[in-house]
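2024-03-11 09:14:02 DEBUG pipeline.ingest accepted 1 chain
2024-03-11 09:14:02 DEBUG pipeline.ingest length=222
2024-03-11 09:14:03 DEBUG pipeline.predict start
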Amino acid sequence: MKKIIIFIGSPGSGKGTQAKRMVEEFGYVHISTGALLRRLSERQDLAKKEIKALEFMKKGHLVPDWLVYKIVFPEADKLILKKSKGIIFDGAIRNVKQARAFQKHFEKLGLGDEVLTLDIKISNRESFDRLTKRRICGKCDEIIPWTSLTAKLKICPKCGGKLKLRKDDNLVVIKKRIKAQGSTAQKPILDFYRKRKMLKIIDGMKSIDEVTLLVENEIING
């Protein structure tokens, strides 16, 4: 199995859910760019350019590349130095420039050939429907996808925290996010990894458990 797993997918594709399942199944460490950014936004010692970048994110736009590198690379390096089994990145790669920067960083660490990218593919329509209904735990950041089994949940099944809609999950912001992060925007990124034979496509329109089986198979055989 590869040491670096990168999940790519439209907003609401379930890449966060699947990343956490793979952590439990295989012992990887999960790095969520979204969670890191949300934690950063709670700090009181932010520089003006960081505050501006985070405000930009809340309006549905992507944060600048420099901020992604600033929060993700040190976290990844720390985990690698601890000799973790491997790292799963969720929502880290948003454009080709970032893909190149991440690959260059991995190569510096001697992990250039240890990368597997999984694209959980869903339609933009499906992305919109999922994002307007999903919720997040206010305590542990667990994302609760909207299904018939979770529709009536009011507290997080993981920690008991209160569930709420994500602040960035409103109609205007969602449409902007899908335009910036949806299937059309991701094509150059996928081409980057496809040319390097690091890409596998997962049918994200299937049930959560079916997607999990597909992801497990690719990781085991990757």
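2024-03-11 09:14:41 DEBUG pipeline.report The CA atoms of residues 7 and 118 lie 5 Å apart.
2024-03-11 09:14:41 DEBUG pipeline.predict end
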